[in-house]
Amino acid sequence: MFYIYCPYCEEHREEEEFHASGEAHIPRPSDPDNCTDAEWGEYLFFRTNPRGLHHELWVHGIGCRKFFNITRDTVSYEIKETYKIGAKPQFTHAEEKV
Amino acid sequence: MTQKNRLASGGRIDHQRPLNFTYNGKALTGFHGDTVASALLANGVDIVGRSFKYSRPRGIMAAGAEEPNALLQLGATEATQTPNVRATQQDLFEGLVASSTNGWPSPENDAMGFVGKVGARFMPPGFYYKTFMFPQSMWGTYEKFIRKAAGFGRSSLESDVDVYDNINQHADVLIVGAGPAGLSAALAAAKSGARIILADEQSEMGGSLLDSPALIDGQPADEWAVSAIEELSSFDNVMLLSRSTVNGYHDHNFLTIHERCTDHVSDCAVNGQIRQRMHRVRAKWVVLATGSHERPLVFGNNDIPGVMLASAVSTYIRRYAVAPGNKLVLMTTNDNAYQAAFDWADAGHEVVAIVDTRANPSGACVEAAKSRGLKVIIGSAVIEAKGDKRVNGVLIAGIDEVGEKVTGSVEPYDCDILASSGGWSPAIHLSCHTGSRPVWSDEVIGFVPGETVQKQLSAGAINGSFSLESCLKEGTEQGLIAIRNAGFDIEDRSAPKTAPVNEDRAMALFHIPHTKSTSRGPKQFVDFQNDVTASAIELATREGFESIEHVKRYTAMGFGTDQGKTGNINGMAIAAKSLNKSIPETGTTIFRPNYTPVTFGAITGRNVGELFDPERYTAIHRWHVEQGALFEDVGQWKRPWYYPKAGESIQDTLNRECTATRESVGILDASTLGKIDIQGKDAREFLGRVYTNAWAKLAIGKCRYGLMCGEDGMVFDDGVTACLGENHFLMTTTTGGAARVLSWLEIYHQTEWPEMEVYFNSVTDHWSTATISGPNARKVLAKLTDDIELDAESFKFMDWHTGTVAGVPARVFRISFTGELSYEINVSANYGLAVWEKIMEAGSEFNITPYGTESMHVLRAEKGFIIVGQDTDGSVHPHDINHGWAVVDSKPFSFIGKRGMKRADCVRPNRKQLVGLKTKVPDAVIPEGAQAVNDFEQPVPMDMLGHVTSSYYSANLGRSIAMGMIKSGLSRIGETVYYPLADGRVIEAEICSPVFYDPKGERQRV
């Protein structure tokens, strides 16, 4: 069970207070109507599944109800950082653009 | 029976306090301080069970958590039945009732036993898969017999009478294991004032010190342990947990400790005590001082009762004053095990021989053995044990220096107990739980903890530092490091002192050679619990299983409840040798939680019965109960399902409730519908983005139905939203979807459109909602309000008004889910019941009839109104359910779902569409879920057109009604489809409009 630092509450809390909400940094296309089916499908369904660092969207559901991001190592489950929506992660893959 | 193996004095038991217990119905006696295992051995019980596969007799082999054989069923009553209890870890108490879990009719005389003798070659690994797979239809029959023959414990058929608990703990340092390393770590750390938990699985802390002959700081080891514990217990900041197994090491230093609070006292806890408790610990730093397990050696017939671990023999003598036999042969690869022979001799029994596999052992213990006049046979091994239900002799032969071949002649010796030691395997289980790969050490002849990302340290035998001196030293060091890492200042402290022991190197030997090949020789067991032999592992490698993980799964090695604590390293060594690889090349399997089995009670704690899941009640709940309502679970809500009167069938009730509503007036508790208060200057724009329809022009005082979709275009929720003010709306959601919808609004606001000024708040529980519905609804409401104009002009359909109802401030919404004239009366939840009762009173002259969710479903289905989640399933978009009218593509913002429902697959022809279904036989009700076909005589598999989503008998219409998905259904109105059912019937139905009642919608607008 993870021990997660909520960047809004500024405290570590048990995972039970949080809920994972999928991969982070998947912005909604600004002009959906002009997306091709392939582009929309990419946005809707396709996610990376990296071995190593992964940016995830979480919500402090039983707490401040704020969404925020976590950079987590999918091998060791180590949480490298948590950061607010709109902020950039400090930890990234070499080939990754966030 | 007398305790024939009990020594007259000694041990840590109380010889003055006898305890009575029964084993397999036999009355036996032990002493206070005994485990069930030590008591059974004292009473001369050799056989404690039959083996899993070959049904061979098995006896107690170990003295601790690693015991593979002595798994007993405990419990004096049906309600207290507990399976899978390791006799070595269960304290004896007065009146304990234990039985063996396999062997029929008894473990001593087992009907399946012949298999173990003659069936060797007939039951190789994969035997069950290979033999019983065909014909597949017979598997159920085979399985019953196999399970019965194999024998497992059983769970109680009655509810557990005991109370279990969970407790959350935060520790600065958690020390696992209170042996020499753990105790010294705790002593070093205690003065810091940090929160320290020291947990140990045994009934008494001290670990190996309790049966060690060594001196620490001039004191006998066991006395030193007692005074160390005394010292620690004087610190308020140190929590000492005995009988508490740290069972799991999870991510981010979260560990679970399974504490048995009363299992050592009685069959079930008394006086409301907690029987077992799960501590859920978040620790800043962890020191693993888990020690090590002795490895048995693998040789012929090494499973005969009377063959034990060398250290176990010592423990039973020194700690429990039990010498389980008379004539001992000890086989060892190391110095450490000599102690067993010394203890045996000191107990006044005969040591037949110490068989040392090393060619030229030179440690201090060899000299000691010689000076005691004990016979030491070097460069040799016990290649085979003799005996049936108890070992009665051994065959000893010289072996070569690497332990691969028998070199000398084979000599028989008589004995009735055989102790073996292949060295010690560090207990690395917990360090593996978080995914850390252990590392092989040739020096240790075992795996030690590998790299980890946890805040974890380890001390003592877990690191392969087996000597007492190094355990005390490492414990002290790591205790200081842990406490400093956790942010505390503390002075250095020197380790407790003990005399160093001159030990010779141990031999890396696992599998003793035999004069015959492994497959032709007597059975040589590796995993006792799952009956995995050395030849089975060799066979697995010959059959092509090269990965140790595959060998494990093929042979079932390490799959027992003991997780291969005694057998795994031996198995890996045999596999490695067979594959011509080294052990590190072959690799290891990974231990997973839990270290030892945990009861379900301890896991669930208090979350049982009515506390299993929260139940939500409306303010009117008590009234429903008093009226005899039956309830339906909707999410966590208890909603009235229907209100049967005496003598009514469910259909009678539904008919009465539905008819009364359409003819006069019905009342529904609609408080459970999700209610979200939405405010802010961008609230209206936000609604336009999350709903498929238009919100720009909804005036204050008006309500509108809204349909919500996902980005894939599929229907996600629906409900009515009212405009309370220019920047203020009240959204209603489905009962089950409320939390999901709120989260949905939040995620879009917070991650996509943070610039919008809008706020969401759940107000579901703030309001109590009574919906009155039917042609007399207005007359009822008129009696209860004098400040709300109710005439059709002043209060139109889809309007809402504030006012006073039954003297209470209310919001009244004129919206309808029945198609009748309806008012949803919302009052502050605290007034909910009072207002409800006033409405009932006012409505009595109109025979106002409460109806539940079932009648609500029928009434809405008569109108063709959908229920999201019943008539939709996440794969239908608004056009599929003929709700295109609720989709406004012309909105400036590309609302959620717009792009999704334009995907090629969403606009293709031949999609399934929601239609009404009228059966040819009017009172035939098609089962929900039934599949439509065009031709019911088509051979299976038929072409399926879609399933029935809603289906009821409608008393108002005097016939059945249904809705369902049909491929291209909207263009097939008037055509016939068939529903072939599992029972052979075929129901014929005509595709029609789903609006069966009042198609023009006039009744709700009167």
UniProtKB/TrEMBL annotation, chain A:
<protein>
    <submittedName>
        <fullName>Sarcosine oxidase subunit delta</fullName>
    </submittedName>
</protein>
<dbReference type="Pfam" id="PF04267">
    <property type="entry name" value="SoxD"/>
</dbReference>
<dbReference type="InterPro" id="IPR006279">
    <property type="entry name" value="SoxD"/>
</dbReference>
<dbReference type="GO" id="GO:0046653">
    <property type="term" value="P:tetrahydrofolate metabolic process"/>
</dbReference>
<dbReference type="GO" id="GO:0008115">
    <property type="term" value="F:sarcosine oxidase activity"/>
</dbReference>
<dbReference type="InterPro" id="IPR038561">
    <property type="entry name" value="SoxD_sf"/>
</dbReference>
TrEMBL record, chain B:
<dbReference type="Pfam" id="PF01571">
    <property type="entry name" value="GCV_T"/>
</dbReference>
<dbReference type="InterPro" id="IPR027266">
    <property type="entry name" value="TrmE/GcvT-like"/>
</dbReference>
<comment type="similarity">
    <text>Belongs to the GcvT family.</text>
</comment>
<feature type="domain" description="SoxA A3">
    <location>
        <begin position="522"/>
        <end position="604"/>
    </location>
</feature>
<dbReference type="Pfam" id="PF13510">
    <property type="entry name" value="Fer2_4"/>
</dbReference>
<keyword id="KW-0560">Oxidoreductase</keyword>
<dbReference type="GO" id="GO:0008115">
    <property type="term" value="F:sarcosine oxidase activity"/>
</dbReference>
<dbReference type="InterPro" id="IPR036188">
    <property type="entry name" value="FAD/NAD-bd_sf"/>
</dbReference>
<feature type="domain" description="Aminomethyltransferase C-terminal">
    <location>
        <begin position="912"/>
        <end position="998"/>
    </location>
</feature>
<dbReference type="Pfam" id="PF08669">
    <property type="entry name" value="GCV_T_C"/>
</dbReference>
<dbReference type="Pfam" id="PF07992">
    <property type="entry name" value="Pyr_redox_2"/>
</dbReference>
<dbReference type="InterPro" id="IPR006277">
    <property type="entry name" value="Sarcosine_oxidase_asu"/>
</dbReference>
<dbReference type="InterPro" id="IPR006222">
    <property type="entry name" value="GCVT_N"/>
</dbReference>
<feature type="domain" description="GCVT N-terminal">
    <location>
        <begin position="620"/>
        <end position="887"/>
    </location>
</feature>
<keyword id="KW-0808">Transferase</keyword>
<dbReference type="InterPro" id="IPR023753">
    <property type="entry name" value="FAD/NAD-binding_dom"/>
</dbReference>
<keyword id="KW-0032">Aminotransferase</keyword>
<dbReference type="InterPro" id="IPR013977">
    <property type="entry name" value="GcvT_C"/>
</dbReference>
<dbReference type="InterPro" id="IPR041854">
    <property type="entry name" value="BFD-like_2Fe2S-bd_dom_sf"/>
</dbReference>
<protein>
    <submittedName>
        <fullName>Sarcosine oxidase subunit alpha</fullName>
    </submittedName>
</protein>
<feature type="domain" description="FAD/NAD(P)-binding">
    <location>
        <begin position="172"/>
        <end position="426"/>
    </location>
</feature>
<dbReference type="InterPro" id="IPR042204">
    <property type="entry name" value="2Fe-2S-bd_N"/>
</dbReference>
